[in-house]
């Protein structure tokens, strides 16, 4: 088998499937996704590519389009620009997907052909068993093997308690305890970094994913990750690679989608975590009560009566804001709408500054 493709994670199985498409082009792996454009690594080089008309015309939903990690059949159309067309997406051996809010519920593939999923959760105050459970189910559903990475253990005073809690819900899953600050547990992680094997990293914002990935990649990250390339206007832009091949250490997938996955997932989880507030809010005068200055607010009354704490309402509101922010982010229509508002807001800010 070809050397570079093997480094990219090619297996006999995929090579065999590709034999059916031999005449349609080269074999490659999607390493980054931009708006409607994909970066595909092939045996020879990396090619920017669009999808073929056939893929567009036969797409059932978003999941029919290529995603980072996919093996694809790609053909070069223009020798000079090097741009290509993706004709075929080979069967996914595993995939992390999420539901996307839109006109109808749509499936979007965040990353595919993953062997191991590192579920990162920090061992400090952010530790949340229920969220961890949800991540684990994402992990198992993907078809890859989940591994729990408990991060920031230098900040945890009662690791023993957390260990006991996790062991109850994480049956059959390896648990690693790490600190990127002290370097504890990093050696254990290296055991999972195997040439040709693909690892995806998921976890909430701030749990230390970037710090950890940077540590694993060492010097390589800057070199491997940032590539300069020409956009269509001939201007140089620096873009981000989402699938990174490490020397002798396998492949790491670190897509923005992986980072955002938790929010949409938490949308269902808010109700669980704040059920007492939701129960009380049923007594508010207005069904869309924000529990702020509205009259007849049962939640405010409960705070005054001392039934629930002010802090609890604050964290509830914060989480709700985050979720609606993420939902706006994925809903394309709403997205462009908020963008317009953002531009307006910035414009106003600038005008105010001038005064
Ligand atoms: N005490 C401690 N702090 C850490 C550790 N690892 C990361 N941090 C800190 O935690 C904060 C968040 O770390 P990041 O690596 O940016 O977290 P992230 O998960 O990549 O966050 P997003 O990019 O928002 O998804 C930073 O201030 C880090 O310095 C650790 O092992 N111990
Ligand atoms: Zn209210």
From TrEMBL:
Keyword Signal among record annotations: no
Pfam families: RsgA_GTPase
Entry's EC annotation: 3.6.1.-
List of residues binding Zn(2+): 284, 289, 291, 297
Biased composition range(s): Basic and acidic residues: 330-340
Main EC class the enzyme belongs to: hydrolase
Ranges where the record places region Disordered: 330-355
Primary localization: cytoplasm
Location in or out of the cell: Cytoplasm
Cofactor section: Zn(2+)
Family recorded in the similarity comment: Belongs to the TRAFAC class YlqF/YawG GTPase family. RsgA subfamily.
Subunit structure: Monomer. Associates with 30S ribosomal subunit, binds 16S rRNA.
Protein name according to UniProt: Small ribosomal subunit biogenesis GTPase RsgA
